[in-house]
Model the fold of this input.
Amino acid sequence: MLRLAITATALITGSSAVYFYILHLRLSSRVQHESRFETLSASSPRPTAIESVPDKVFTGQYYAFYDRASKPVPRDSLPLAESLESLFTKYVRRNMTAFSRLPAALILRTVSKTSEQKQSFKTSHIASLNFQEGDLICGAYRVKVRRENKVEFEMKMQMMDFVDGRLSVSCREEDGEVVFSTEVMMWKRADEKRDMPMEKPVARWMHELGSWWLVDSGVQYLMQLES
Done:
């Protein structure tokens, strides 16, 4: 009986690994993406949609991870009766709600201590937000900048206080298409020996899987809304 249980567990685990590997491959072809690690200087390219990274980070004293995922969709495949800003807000609500159920958010939930942090994971809380400056989502993401069709979050992870970061979710309309983008930037001091999460290959792979899936499925969600 024990041998049967072990065999069944191995088969399930192996099947799950194959499924996520194939999903990662498929998403990589459906979502435009790029990432890099670098020591930042004044000449380093700045993220296109992240405006609140402190100037001190671009002085050669910080080491950073940058990641961008985006997906274009024809404007006429989205509900035409709604403004782009309205659709964008629904997109962020849906994606942050979906994120709240992913493993990364479950880890954040376990280390959340205050009532504000715990409340910020609730679906009803996220669904009520227009993502104004100061709003907290999933315990670690506080809105730093709010512009039309863009939300920029400051990321604060209690278990890694030596890392700072930003998450930007945005969309823009060009040439009859709407491009939905997610940009992530994390940084630490260049002399810091501890690794940022994305310096670990498994964590970076899981981040890619989650980020690409959210962009891809978020766009599909909007396309399926009734006009």
The radius of gyration is 19 Å. Residues 3 and 40 are 53 Å apart (CA to CA).
